[in-house]
Amino acid sequence: MDKQTEIPIVTVTLNPAIDRTLHLPTFLLGQVNRVASERTDPGGKGINVAKVIKALEHPVLVTGFLGTNNASVFENYFKKEEIHNQFVETSGENRVNIKIVDTSKDMVSELNFPGVTPTPLDLDHLFSTLRQLAITHKWFVLSGSLPPTIPTDIYAQFITMLHQYNCKVILDTSGPALAAGIAARPFAVKPNLPELSQLLNSPLESDEEILKAIKQLVNQGIEKVAISLGEKGSLVADSHQILRAKAPTVPVCSTVGAGDAFVAGFSVGQARNLSLAESVRLASASAGAAVALPGTQAASLKQVNELINKVQINEWR
Fold first, then answer.
1. What is the pLDDT along the chain (317 residues), one digit of tens a residue?
2. Distance CA 113, CA 19 (A)
């Protein structure tokens, strides 16, 4: 398909955030700490995914809930980046996430505030928005945490509804929302190893245990399973193969948003009908390029392309 006619991927963010990243030479509890540099980015997992999809030069549309009190931070960003915006506005303020980077220890501490509290009417509006989008869009990425007023099976409800329109859903969440979502059989899931361990109530300490867990998810009807392993790379599987991918080592500036960049690259690869290997190559390069940048900003297509042929992919058994 020509890039001019590509259909946007839709990302859904139920709990957007304003990410403030503070870099300190050292961070000491109970003492005065001086910030060396800081940046502010509109975020939340689905929005972070959307940034990278756009940077990869694929059209993207964002929806979910957006608190009116500080919505302009997001709306101005979407307009500037030419990201299609169909968020449902709700009363209140989007949460602020403060990430404190201790540069001497290469350690990140996070302070996450509570977010919006959508009403049942807000949720009805979002369902209507998704139904309308499902008529003309095929790929949906559901990612991130849930506001406290939203039922834990909401992603499962979305997946079930989107299936009725033959849409494909990539799910990236954790805890009860992940467990319920998996039961609705999304096209793909991307837990990290701790999230998968929690899901299966197993430590998953050996390769054999991880392999068994991946096969269990595929056997449940999930077509693609991606497991992020942090600096060790990732595992991606379907019913035919399991691939291990590792991006080249880059200077790490911020690991925040690396998983979202992976999801973005993978979703673009799948939307463009790339093979599993080429999709995970794009995903790994996107994640690798992201960690070299501060905050949750997206790497450019040029930066991703510089890494893409250096990604190591091996069949894993």
1. 455 579 999 999 999 999 888 999 999 999 999 999 998 889 999 999 999 999 999 999 999 999 999 999 999 999 999 999 999 999 999 999 898 999 899 888 989 888 899 999 999 999 999 999 999 999 999 999 999 889 999 999 999 999 999 999 999 999 999 999 999 999 999 998 899 999 888 888 888 888 889 999 999 999 999 998 877 888 999 999 999 998 887 766 666 678 999 999 999 999 999 999 999 999 999 998 887 776 667 778 888 888 899 999 999 86
2. 11
- Whether 260 sits among the annotated catalytic residues: the reply is yes
Q: How many whole angstroms separate alpha carbon 103 and alpha carbon 154? A: 38
CB 106 within 8 A of CB 84: no
The pTM assigned to this predicted structure is 0.91
One CATH from 3.30.450.180, 3.40.1190.20, 1.20.1080.10, 3.90.226.10 for 7-26+35-315: 3.40.1190.20
Pick the catalytic residue: 122, 153, 172, 260?
A: 260
Selection from 21, 23, 30, 70 nearest residue 48 by Cα: 21
* Domain spans, the chain: 7-26+35-315
